[in-house]
Write a structure and sequence with these properties.
The chain has helices spanning 2-24, 88-95, 103-114, 127-140, 142-145, 160-168, 194-204, 236-249, 266-269, 273-291; strands spanning 46-56, 59-67, 77-82, 118-122, 147-157, 178-182, 223-228, 254-259. With 293 residues, the protein is of the alpha/beta class. It has a single domain (33-291), classed as Rossmann fold. It is globular.
Length: 293
């Protein structure tokens, strides 16, 4: 009976998600979704577009870097990377564009830049490998890009979070100094819900790299989870609760904000003061751990 119920929930999720995408594409173009938070100067940020960071058989993968308005490029600044767990081929099917060119990501990058940090969005064909290549490129070109490589934060959401957490929790690197995950799906190290997650990943195209065992997680990276009480993905919140419980048991620096009335995608869908308070708290989290280091 339990297996049947879980399979039914997966089917409902896939139907709901597919119908939502179909509704967005009634005009052959996805509905523009922007973050429901405004920062003075976000329309005047400096954008360096299409910077090549990886060459694949003569074709470059590119990134966009958003800088604060009137940034003089004399000093290095902290940055937040929008970490991907879907390749862009999946993004184009779901959203109609690469993730770095999608309105919700663009608005997040403008908000971050107008708040005094750089924001980085990038193209991807293999998310698990591309975040490593991107981090290496940023390290090698920090002087030219005016990015403080010792002050890099991460943002991920939804199924992108699986890839983000697999990289962030790995003790063999310390690239990210803090991370924020919105309604993010994490894999339990006991592989709970793995069959259901595999079913969805095959339908939607996101990656599912394995995270380290909990006793092997990095101990020095503050992580914020924001969960949505009205999330239509049935196992996101139980997976987040399991992760946070294990993090607390090891005394790791973890923060959980649970938004009881929030939807999956609340930052663009729920236009209210609670959403704006959570986004402001997110910006303060990045500023505290990146600008104060």
């Amino acid at each position: 009976m339990k297996a049947f119920l879980l399979s039914s929930m997966v089917a409902v999720f896939l139907l709901t998600f597919t119908n939502g995408i179909r509704a967005q594409n009634t005009q052959d173009k996805p509905k523009e979704q922007v973050v429901v938070y405004k920062v003075p100067g976000m329309d005047n940020v400096i954008i360096k577009k299409d910077i090549p960071y990886r060459d694949i058989a003569g074709s470059a993968l590119k990134m966009d870097i958003y800088y604060p308005p009137k940034f003089d490029f004399k000093n290095k600044i902290p940055a937040v990377v929008m970490v991907l767990g879907y390749p862009d081929v999946a993004g184009k099917k779901l959203l109609g564009s690469e993730f770095k060119n999608y309105s919700q990501y663009i608005s997040w990058c403008r908000i971050i830049a107008a708040s005094g940090m750089a924001a980085i969005a990038y193209e991807s064909v293999n998310p698990e490998k591309d975040i490593i290549t991107l981090s290496n490129y940023l390290k090698a070109n920090a002087d030219k890009l005016k990015i403080d490589i010792g002050k890099i934060g991460a943002y991920s959401c939804s199924a992108h979070t699986i890839t983000a957490m697999a990289y962030i929790l790995d003790t063999t690197n310390n690239f990210f100094k803090c991370a924020v995950n919105y309604y993010g799906l994490v894999l339990a190290d006991d592989f709970k819900f793995m069959p259901q997650i595999d079913t969805i990943s095959k339908q939607m195209g996101f990656m599912t790299p394995q995270i380290p065992k909990s006793e092997e997680w990095r101990k020095d990276v503050p992580i914020m989870f924001v969960s949505a009480g009205k999330d239509y993905v049935p196992f996101i919140n139980p997976a987040v609760a399991d992760f946070v419980s294990k993090a607390i048991s090891q005394n790791l620096p973890v923060t959980l904000i649970h938004y009881p009335n929030g939807q999956h995608g609340f930052d663009a869908l729920d236009d209210n003061e609670t959403t704006r308070m959570i986004i402001k708290t997110t910006l303060d989290f990045w500023k505290f751990y990146l600008q104060q280091m």
